[in-house]
């Protein structure tokens, strides 16, 4: 079996990132993934060898920077199956992408009395922008609720999408439950009523092949840092016919065709939405990350990730005081196991795991409405990637098994 | 598994079997203290007679650190003058910032079980929730005037 861990310096080099001389077990991948050397090199190489402001100068260095940046856009286009590179807008992250859609599309297309439909499992980044649109336009925000196992009742969704619905905003994979939502089916229902669908792909793109045309998503957003890329680069895909009619989100440099004292004619797509100097190094490193994911292959990544997730899940199922949220099948978790332990607060769980050298996330996971709906205030989340090992899963389970006793609750 | 974590017996005892976590119907001061980012939420209840805290209790939810710290605090302040309680709170904050002397830490008795929080920035808010709420309860709006954990 190929040892992919050696591609990731932080996972393979015993350096400062150790606890008592042992490597940390990093299972907080849903928060951010680790980065392979090739991505770090790509970002560094840009500044070392190709640094110039893209899209501006006509000297060779700037042309080179432009070419690398635009190639990255094409790489993203192919990665998510978009029709045109002009439909790919580089942003900082999923949150910024969602805000772009909300401010630019939402505020101009949603009117008083309209409805915006979101799912109860949305990350705050795909909820708060729609709360803002609803507040400013007088539209009504409605929620698609899920079954206790995280699945959606599609008949109910069909009923909830009406003539009044203008926007359906939903995540492809829940960052708490790890469950995959049937985007294609929901997109068809939305389009039947002339609504558009905005898809949060932050948790799906790192784990599965995505094709926005097949899904028929109108907008699709993801973050570079969750799929081995750098922080500070994200993507918004939008159908060209929608993007063309939208006003700019931010205005300023390099998003214009001509400017007079009073007004401006905006640049063509995608530059209309990329005001100011762009994060070229980030986009180029994201391109390297995408190529890395493609070179490993989603089939290989999924097989390994599932084996490790299943191992951890099976271990947790043996523990009577531990309750995993969502489906009882590891296949329906996309590497994410969010759980509670009777009587032990999630922040204490994560603190004990830290003592054992294990990195997880505790809290509400920026999904407070979902946790409230499930009747809990916070939970602990372990999230696995293909580079995690079964030994790591075993150590994680052993740690969890010891927690109640260590917190003074006896055996 | 070896318990190398920070949770010592004093802490787990006060969390699992708290002495002061109950209602206090005849309290004359009741104040809620919340850590919005992690969800710790307590109601501190005090019964006072002039300058003396004659009884105290708390109810609420939160992590072991927030709950144990509040319980330890009440054990220290019940029966004391308000001034003394506030002084203990000052020393506790000093300890949490890593600025307290060994003598000062010793004077905190069981609360000194939380001294390692000084190396755990993410948990400071949990440890000081009870003490911060106490200060607000006793001083009201004046509580913000002198320096506390928020001014860094």
Automatic annotation (TrEMBL), chain A:
Entry's Gene Ontology BP terms: cysteine metabolic process
UniProt cross-references to Gene3D superfamilies, sorted A to Z: Aspartate Aminotransferase, domain 1, Type I PLP-dependent aspartate aminotransferase-like (Major domain)
Cofactor(s) needed by this chain: pyridoxal 5'-phosphate
GO molecular function per UniProt: cysteine desulfurase activity; pyridoxal phosphate binding
Domain Aminotransferase class V: 25-396
Alphabetical list of Pfam families matching this protein: Aminotran_5
Enzyme class: transferase
Superkingdom per UniProt: Bacteria
Catalytic activity, reaction form: (sulfur carrier)-H + L-cysteine = (sulfur carrier)-SH + L-alanine
CDD domains per the UniProt record, alphabetical: SufS_like
Keywords for this protein: Pyridoxal phosphate, Transferase
Entry EC no(s): 2.8.1.7
Family per record: Belongs to the class-V pyridoxal-phosphate-dependent aminotransferase family. Csd subfamily.
Protein name: cysteine desulfurase
Lineage of the species this protein comes from: Bacteria, Bacillati, Bacillota, Clostridia, Lachnospirales
From TrEMBL, chain B:
Domain of life, per lineage: Bacteria
Signal peptide from the UniProt entry: none
Gene Ontology molecular function: any one: iron ion binding
Residue ranges constituting the NIF system FeS cluster assembly NifU N-terminal domain according to the UniProt record: 7-126
Record InterPro entries: NIF_FeS_clus_asmbl_NifU_N
Single biological process term from Gene Ontology: iron-sulfur cluster assembly
PANTHER family found in the cross-reference section: IRON-SULFUR CLUSTER ASSEMBLY ENZYME NIFU HOMOLOG
Name of the protein described by the UniProt record: NifU-like protein
Organism: Roseburia faecis
């Amino acid at each position: 079996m190929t040892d992919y861990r050696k591609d990731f310096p932080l996972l393979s080099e015993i350096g400062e990132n150790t606890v008592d001389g042992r490597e940390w077990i990093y299972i907080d991948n849903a928060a951010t993934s680790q980065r392979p050397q090739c991505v770090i090199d790509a970002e560094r190489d840009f500044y070392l060898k190709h640094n110039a402001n893209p899209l501006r100068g006509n000297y060779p260095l700037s042309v080179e920077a432009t070419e690398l940046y635009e190639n990255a856009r094409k790489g993203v286009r192919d990665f998510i199956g978009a029709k045109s590179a002009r439909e790919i807008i580089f942003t900082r992250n999923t949150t910024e992408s969602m805000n772009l859609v909300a401010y630019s599309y939402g505020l101009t297309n949603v009117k008083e009395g309209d409805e915006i439909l979101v799912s109860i499992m949305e990350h705050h980044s795909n909820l708060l922008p729609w709360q803002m649109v609803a507040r400013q336009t007088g539209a009504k925000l409605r929620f698609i609720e899920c079954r206790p196992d995280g699945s959606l009742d599609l008949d109910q969704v069909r009923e909830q999408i009406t003539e009044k619905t203008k926007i359906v905003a939903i995540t492809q994979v829940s960052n708490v439950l790890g469950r995959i939502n049937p985007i294609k089916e929901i997109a068809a229902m939305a389009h039947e009523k002339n609504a558009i669908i905005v898809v949060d792909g932050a948790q799906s793109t790192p784990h599965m092949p995505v094709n926005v045309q097949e899904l028929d998503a109108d907008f699709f957003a993801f973050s570079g840092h969750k799929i081995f890329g750098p922080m500070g680069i994200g993507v918004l895909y939008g159908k060209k016919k929608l993007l063309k009619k939208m006003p700019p989100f931010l205005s300023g440099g390099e998003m214009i065709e001509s400017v007079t004292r009073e007004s401006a004619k905006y640049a063509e797509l995608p530059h209309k939405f990329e005001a100011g100097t762009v994060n070229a190094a980030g986009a180029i490193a994201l391109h390297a990350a995408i190529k890395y994911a493609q070179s490993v292959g989603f089939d290989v990544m999924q097989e390994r990730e599932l084996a490790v997730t299943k191992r951890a899940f099976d271990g947790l199922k043996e523990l009577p005081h531990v309750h995993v949220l969502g489906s009882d099948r590891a296949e329906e978790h996309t590497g994410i196991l969010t759980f509670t332990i009777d009587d032990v607060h999630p922040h204490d769980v994560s603190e004990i795991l830290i003592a054992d050298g294990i990195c997880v996330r505790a809290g509400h996971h920026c999904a407070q409405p979902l946790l409230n709906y499930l009747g809990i205030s916070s939970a602990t989340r372990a999230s696995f990637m293909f580079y995690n090992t079964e030994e790591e899963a075993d150590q994680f389970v052993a740690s969890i098994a010891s927690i109640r006793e260590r917190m003074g609750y006896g055996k | 598994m070896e318990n190398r974590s920070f949770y010592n017996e004093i802490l787990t005892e006060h969390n699992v079997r708290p002495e002061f976590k109950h209602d206090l119907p005849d309290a004359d001061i009741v104040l809620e203290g919340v850590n919005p980012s992690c969800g710790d939420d307590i109601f501190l209840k005090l019964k006072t007679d002039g300058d003396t805290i004659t009884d105290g209790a708390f109810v609420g939810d939160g992590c072991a650190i927030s709950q144990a710290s509040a319980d330890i605090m009440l054990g220290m302040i019940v029966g004391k003058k308000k001034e003394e309680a506030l002084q203990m709170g000052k020393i506790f904050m000093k300890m949490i910032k890593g600025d307290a002397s060994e003598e000062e830490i010793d004077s905190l008795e069981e609360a000194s079980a939380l001294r390692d929080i000084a190396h755990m920035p993410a948990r400071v808010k949990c440890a000081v929730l009870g003490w911060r709420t106490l200060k607000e309860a006793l001083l009201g709006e004046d509580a913000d005037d002198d320096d506390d954990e928020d001014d860094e």
